[in-house]
Amino acid sequence: MTRPIGRLAIAVAGALLATGLTASSASAEGPEQIVNGTFDDGHAPWWGTANITLDSSSGQLCTDVPGGTVNPWDVIIGQDNVPLVSGETYAYSFFATATPAKVARALIQLPVDPWTQYLSANPEVSVSGNQYTYTFTSPVDLPNAQVAFQIGGSADPWRLCLDNVSLTGGAVQEPYEPDTGPRVRVNQVGYLPKGPKNATLVTEATAALPWRLKDSRGKVVASGRTAPRGVDASSGQNVHSLDFGRYTKAGTGYTIVADGETSHPFDIGEGFWEKLRIDALKFYYTQRSGIEILDSLRPGYGRPAGHVGVAPNQGDTNVPCQPGVCDYTLDVSGGWYDAGDHGKYVVNGGISVHQLMSEYERSREPRTLRDGTLGIPESRNRVPDILDEARWEQEFLLSMQVPAGKPLAGMAHHKIHDQTWTGLPLMPHLDDRLRELHPPSTAATLNLAATAAQAARVFKPYDRAFAARNLAAAKTAWAAAKAHPAVIADPADGNGGGTYSDPDVSDEFYWAAAELYITTGDREFKNFVLASPHHRADIWRERGFDWGNTAQLGRIALATRPNDLPDRHRVRASVVQGAEKYLATQKAHPYGIPYAPSDNVYDWGSNNLIINNLVVVATAYDLTGKKRYLDGVLQGMDYIFGRNALNQSYVTGYGEVASKNQHSRWYARQLNPDLPNPPVGTLSGGPNSLIQDPVAQQKLQGCAPQFCYLDDIESWSTNELTINWNAPLAWISAFIADQGKG
Q1: Which of 638, 711, 714, 738 is catalytic?
Q2: Cellulase Ig-like domain spans which residues (predicted)?
Q3: Could you give the domains of the chain?
Q4: Mean per-residue pLDDT for 24-34?
Q5: Which of 491-495, 566-570, 665-669, 698-702 is predicted least confidently?
Q6: Which of 359, 493, 720, 738 is flagged as catalytic?
Q7: For this structure, is 156 an active site residue?
Q8: What pLDDT shows up at residue 1?
Q9: Active site residue: 413, 429, 534, 663, which one?
């Protein structure tokens, strides 16, 4: 979820740092804050929830944990009235065993709502047992903090034993040092045989160094010298670039050796782009709301339908508004869950479904997106699977429109989500919170107008009735937005879901008018496009386009989709100018990234912004056929797959070291081994200089932009997954796959 508001009130705070210190070496300076942590005299004042019995007769505190609970907090062992001092650094340690092995949650927190957590750890507790030690700095003076072990959420019963629980001040917090692996940074997935092949060497050397390319047998097949680039502002590293693009032989297991370091292995080939095209789209089926996810279609990801009104769900089939907002209910079931929570947002759904439909519209190889390619329930219905998947979201967007005869009729409700935040992990069908419609907004209404206008032309060959329904909804939404041009989502409406507030909707007006004009050719929309200040402005932000900056979507659509706009030649030229801007940024960047904010601050979801900049470059290639734009796209994707400061691929399942613990309530293996990691082909949001979540704040203070990232499920500001981040990943993967043997 791309928003920084509301998370401190939920069970994700986690201000922790695993140090590996022993309790005695870390805490010799401070008094013991835990009462009876050795259980030598029974277990008072420790307590447990009513569904367990505590037993300290063995000299440890043990309990049999019942199976069949839903949430971690359904079973708790705790101690109250533990004092914390603001600014003090504490060492927290304990010994634990689990039979069978389980992941527990070890918390130090506020003892009342909103249960703000000052330490949150997720130890993997083994049968033989381990000693666990963490350090954290308290941000508050609190005489009555709560120490809690949350151990619910398991389908099967198990047994936990604790001993030597200790909390002492005076600890020394060691700095977090990420494991960045070899200093030679490459695209860990691979390079096209005839495409550019670049790598980055992190080194203290200032003069050029030799490098060697080795095949899977260790044979040197190419060599050269690095090009020193100086200190990279985005990473703080002294780096060299190296270019091995002249080598074109396909193969697997290649490595680069330079300055005594050997890179992670990579391939030279083509098939991985075709695979990613499919994987990035398959992500959407497991994000669906309102339908059972079949394990036969996604082994390991099957689950009951979420939010269909089956207890404990209150469901999305008859959702009321927030108090005072409206006097009706709507059936808004279906659609995609936006991100790692259970909310659904029209503005984020809008850009996501648009980019999927745009991927279909621009594809030079429609057969690769044909019916049956994604393995979804609608496969084999004579409609391309990518459109079936897009329809699942578009139907939801249509359902968010205010009914005729009601105040603000024709506008779209901004979002629907739980009344209050939920914690992790939580499967969609087990969410018991009240769901609410939030007030309509002009931004949401224009997202509906734009996507419905696009759907009207895209679906017409397959379902004329659905196409007509979309066109009618688009025109109704357009009229409603013009009648209510400044209804802005409340930036404080962030309890239970993201705000997605956007104070300037002139870009949404431009995008919606462009889509309506392309579909209808009507003069009203043409005139609006030509009169918009966005039509002739330089809209190619250095930071890229996103859900809140959508004029670029309209410009690209006008440049690529058939229409009779009188200055279409200038529109097409402007896209090429935007691509030139991003290529210049890429050329100047030591890591070859087409993204270099002038303030050197990386944004929330920086990976998505980087790929969206590459979408502009790719569109320039479609418009001109000039190979340097294709090369720019390929080189830019190197960053996503490991040619970066962290030596980390940000796509699950792609690369030697890849993100796998993205923030999610149901892809939550890091918290519960019974749950899966995110599906292969899931993009992480990536480095975020603002480090809004407490896990990142504890570990990443002062981070250089590329280092502002943690592959941790609790780091929601750097490591969330979202539907609008996978959409450009799918688009750009399809673009590259379409180039064949280029």
Answers
A1: 711
A2: 179-263
A3: 31-169 (2.60.120.260), 184-268 (2.60.40.10), 269-503 (1.50.10.10)
A4: 63
A5: 698-702
A6: 720
A7: no
A8: 53
A9: 663
